[in-house]
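Team,

Forwarding the record for the chain on the shared tracking sheet. I've put the sequence and predicted structure together so nobody has to dig through attachments.
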Amino acid sequence: MRYVLEAARPILIDLLSTIVFFVLLWTTRDFILATALGIAAGVVEVTIRLVRKKPIGVITWMSLGLVVIMGSASIFTHNPLFVMLKPTIAYSLVGAAMLKRGWMHHYLPEIAKPYLTRDDLAPWGYAWSSLMFFSAVLNIALALTLDPIAWSASLSIFGLASKIVLFAITYAAIRARVRSVRNSAQAKTQADSAA
């Protein structure tokens, strides 16, 4: 379980402002408050990383930019549709970024990196990209047909469930591949030393 949490940690950190937004929207039903504090959480997250001199990925910068721009538009116009359509833009941009081979390498635990090539990871990167594009299209349909509370519940349930399922499948497949490569390398080393 520790390895699963270690692997999920960077993704959860990248989604902090989104998590804050949805939790506050569900608990307070105040769209403006949830949006404002979601923006604040995104700014705090990036500020902490900058102060700690931690690398900030493109997805994090993009997410912060979208949160600030679309969130501000919703606050100033009192129209939640800006924030409701933000995930479509984010999913589309992230899906496009995930088409680049090798993006998953950043999210791998250090112990797994020596055993995996870009070719090992490419199919999983494309699976994640496909999920992002599907989520973008689904969000448009939900945003245009549901009120903000129903939209946030529907998007959250689908978003969380679909990503947990794909994460679990990806994690299991990558872990099996690492074991296979590591076992093959150990068997070769033993065979070479016996010869």
